[in-house]
Specification:
- The protein has 212 residues and is an all-beta fold.
- Helices cover 2% and strands 59% of the residues.
């Protein structure tokens, strides 16, 4: 594949108007936290590793541009540490999430060289959180951390297409950035868990391995 004059695999693959695929990958989700005041109790958010799977539908708009729909299932978790508490029951919140993501992506490919073709991508998505606890009447006083069930994000990334004899393999690295505040605040406006938080927005790093 990387020799000076490689055998060109799947020479006409990218001439298809429509084609399909699937992806597997790893992810690390985090929260971007903004505070109302800098004098409030300190909070640390730690992102944990998760994984994701999904399908890919591709519409080729022209030689170098594709429109892609990549619905997927993401399993993620974060650990939030409230440092003002001495006991773990009050000071630690494990925020687990099962996301169904509906991203619409535009892919910009370079000129193909042999069996290699780098690309950039960007797009927007709507994400459903099946583990949001949004309908729960309990809050952090009962150890229930709540977020909104739907969020909107934008995605940016890069990758490379590798053409093998029978399939195209496309690894990519992507950043996901939430548009909107996801936090559902506690009933008490002075809650030590949510009272000083201005906004809580998703941040994520994705490593996807796509097969066509």
């Amino acid at each position: 594949m990387f020799t000076k004059d490689p055998i060109v695999n799947l020479e006409n693959f990218d001439k298809q108007r429509v084609y399909w695929g699937y992806y597997l990958g790893f992810s690390s989700f985090d929260f971007k936290t903004d505070f109302k005041t800098n004098t409030g109790p300190p909070i640390e958010v730690k992102g944990n590793s998760g994984f994701n799977v999904g399908l890919v539908g591709v519409l080729r708009l022209q030689e170098y541009i594709e429109l892609r729909f990549e619905p997927g299932l993401y399993y993620a978790s974060r650990t939030i540490n409230y440092l003002q508490f001495d006991n773990e029951r009050d000071g630690v919140r494990e925020v687990k999430a099962t996301y169904i993501d509906f991203p619409l992506i535009v892919k910009f490919s370079s000129l193909r060289t042999g069996n290699v073709r780098p690309y950039l991508l960007g797009g927007v998505s709507t994400t459903l959180n099946l583990s949001s606890n949004s309908k729960s009447k309990d809050d952090n006083l009962q150890q229930k951390f709540r977020v909104k069930p739907t969020t909107q994000n934008y995605t940016m990334g890069f990758g490379i297409d590798l053409y093998f004899e029978y399939f195209k393999f496309s690894p990519s690295i992507r950043g996901v950035f939430g548009f909107n505040d996801e936090l559902i605040r506690d009933t008490d406006p002075n809650s030590p868990w949510t009272g000083n938080i201005e906004s809580l927005k998703t941040r994520a790093l994705l490593i996807n391995f796509t097969f066509h």
